[in-house]
Every structure is written in C-alpha cells, then in structure tokens.
Amino acid sequence: MNEALAIGLSVLTLPLVVACAWLGALALLSRPGPAPTAPAPRHRFDLVVPAHDEALGIANTVTSLLAIDYPAELRRVVVVADNCSDDTAARARAAGATVLERTDTERRGKGFALAHAFAWSAKDSFQAHACCVIDADTVVSKNLLSAFSARLAAGATAMQAHYGVSNPLASWRTRLMRIALAMFHQVRSTARERLGVSCGLRGNGMCFSRALLEEVPHDAFSLVEDLEYGIRIGKAGHRVVWVGEADVLGEMVAGEQASRSQRRRWEHGRAEMMRLHGWPLLAEALRRRSGLLLDLALDVLVPPLSRLALGVVAGVAAVVALAAFAPSALVALPAATVSLSALGLSLYVTAGWLHSRTGLRGLVDLAMAPAYVAWKVALAFQGRASQKPQGWVRTTREGETK
C-alpha cells in the first residue's frame, strides 16, 4: 500500500516536472546573443497605438515614438482612438500623430482597433513595409525601428521587442513585475530565439510585415489577442523573432485594486487560450513533427509561475507526509520528481532576477514573492466565478490616482 502511494504521487507530479524542467532548460539557454547590424534605413513603418480613453498619457507615448532614431519620412505614428469618451484623439493629434477615430459599440477592444489600423495602413498611399504595435502607456528606445529593420532585411515577418517596466520603483508590486517580466519575456524569449522557434508575442512592442498581415489577417479579438495571433501565425509556419536589444517600457499599476483587475484579465485570457488551443496545438505539433508548434503548445500549457510554485510546495508537503506516515523505499521517487521541479523553478527565477538587473534590491523584493503568489492564486479562484470581461477594460493609470 505504501509503495502504491509513493508511485501514485510520482505519477501525479510528472506534469509538474515537465513544466519546471522546460522552464529550467530555458533559463540555461537564456544568454543573449549578438544583435544583427542595422542596414541603411529603407523600410517604412506605421507605429500603431491602440488607445481607449488614454488622454492622460498619450502625448508622452507619441513624443517617445517621434523621438526614435529613424528617418522621419520612413515612419508614422498612428493612434487609433477607439470608442473614446475623452480627448485622446485631440491630444494625440496635437502631439504629432496621425489619428484614426473609431466608434463601434459592438466590436470593441484592442483586437478590433488593431484590425482597423492594419486594414487602413494596407490601403494607404504611404505603403508601410511593416506595422508596429505600441501600447498607449509606453516609452520606447530610440533604436526600435533600426532593430526591426535589421530583422526585416534578414527575412523576418513577425518580431517582438523586449517589453519591460517603465516604473519599477513605484511599489513592491512593480519591482516584482520587473523580475516577473524578465522571466516571462527575456528568459523565455532569448532561449526560444536560440532554439530557432517562436519567441512569442507580448502585446506591446510587436512588429508585423505587411506581407504577413496579408497572408494571415489579424482576426484576433480575445482578451489575449497577442497570444491568439501568435498561435495563428505559428500554424501558418511563421515564427516570431526576438529583438532583445530594443526596449518598449510600459507602465505597470502599483495599487492592489488596479493590479487585481489587470491580473484577472491576463489570467482569464490565458486560461481561455489553454482551454481552446493547448492540447489541440500539442496534438498538431506531434502530427506535423513541428518544433515550432511544440514550443507554442508548451508556452500555452505550462501554468503560471504562481501555480507551479504552489505545486512544488504541495509536493514537498506530500512527500514529507508520506515519509512520516507511510514510509517506503519508493518515497525516493516522488522526492526526486519534486526536487527536480524545485531545481527547474529555481533556475528560472534566478535567470529572471539576473536579466532584470535589479541587484540586491531585487533579491529583497523576491522576499515578497510568497505573498504575491498567494494573492495571484486567490485571484485565480475568484476569477472562475466572475463574469468574463468584454471589450475595453481600461486599467487605471498611476497619475489618475494621485
């Protein structure tokens, strides 16, 4: 009986081992490689900014985009003022952007705003070679378009710049978010680029060639339209290329209430993608023998870090209880699986901390991680009973709470 319990616990922890081992392997492969040399500027870009009631900060974002070190005649800033009730459009226009005003009470949300902008760009006489997506609360590095241009010249059709935090000192939450995004964006993306698969789309700092948007139209309208579209282009045989030397830095909310709303939307959206695409994508990857699709399936199926950490803690507790109340030589089996899971998770977190460049302060912030994990898990359970968010659900910006 004791042996059966030990074997059963080992089997139960196998999915945890696979998920954590995958993250640990990505951590070991996350050393950045050299960036390609940017060619002489020749590609034309539309920098698309989807905005819903973003009057407070839209001018700063437009100003940052206009300051990019790239010939002015080869780039445009296009703000989509989507179903706005404030003066977002006027402020964006005054800051120097081309503004598309869109009103549709039925088809609301970022995905619809992007589809509208991409369709407009394709028909406009400017004839952009590529469209970039920049969120309305973002500042960018001046090399953004040069970095994208270098990848376009090498044949890339979809790209993702490094998406980080513009306000890491606002609170312990934003400091932890800097480390968390370093794990999810830099560690995963750098390693996946080295493996030659898709680095994944992150919603902010994306760039798509005109040819790709014509081949695979951006008909992605879920809460995580970036993940949805990334799966669609992966199925079409296109990978997302990592552009790690260019930065897009978004504002993360510091307060608990706004963080709760934002996190619920992210978690709900990813859970929906896992339900709809996770196992079918894995089956298709095996059928087509596609490493690209296998990686995308793992990216969708692996649970959030908070749940993996909770799984490791539960596994340790189960092993200790089994050793104490039902001792058996086979207890070594679940002990080994839980230990491997903890090792993979530790490597992943350590790599994220190193990539975040937060130093000793980051280590101190990680001491708050258990509370953050507990908060996220509680939100996940609460979110199951909550109504699915629809359309634009705007996050309160820091300046609006002061």
Give keywords.
single chain, 402 residues, alpha/beta, Spore Coat Polysaccharide Biosynthesis Protein SpsA, Chain A, 2 domains, eight-stranded mixed β-sheet, 14 helices
Q: Explain this structure to me?
A:
The chain is an alpha/beta fold. It has two domains: 113 residues; 207 residues, Spore Coat Polysaccharide Biosynthesis Protein SpsA, Chain A, CATH 3.90.550.10. The chain is 55% helix and 12% strand. The chain contains 14 helices and eight strands. An eight-stranded mixed sheet has the order 3-2-1-4-7-6-8-5, sandwiched between helices. Helix 9 crosses helix 14. The protein is elongated and about 75 Å long. It starts with a helix and ends in a 19-residue tail after the last helix.
Briefly characterize the structure.
It is built from 14 helices and eight strands.
- How would a crystallographer describe the biggest sheet? 8 strands, mixed
Distance between the termini: 61 Å
**Proportion of beta-strand residues:** 5-15%
What name does the CATH topology of the largest domain carry? Answer: Spore Coat Polysaccharide Biosynthesis Protein SpsA, Chain A
Question: Taking all residues together, what is the mean pLDDT?
Answer: 89
> How many strands?
8
Poorly predicted ranges (pLDDT <50, ≥5 residues)?
none
Alpha plus pi helix count: 14
Helical content (DSSP H or I, runs of 4+): 55-70%
What is the element layout, followed by pairings?
Elements: H1 2-28, E1 45-51, H2 58-66, E2 75-82, H3 88-95, E3 98-102, H4 110-123, E4 130-133, E5 138-140, H5 144-153, E6 158-165, H6 172-195, E7 206-209, H7 210-215, H8 225-235, E8 240-250, H9 256-288, H10 291-301, H11 305-325, H12 332-356, H13 359-366, H14 369-383
Parallel strand pairs: 1-2, 1-4, 2-3, 6-8
Antiparallel strand pairs: 4-7, 5-8, 6-7
Helix pairs in contact: 1-6, 1-11, 1-12, 2-3, 6-12, 8-10, 9-10, 9-14, 11-12, 11-14
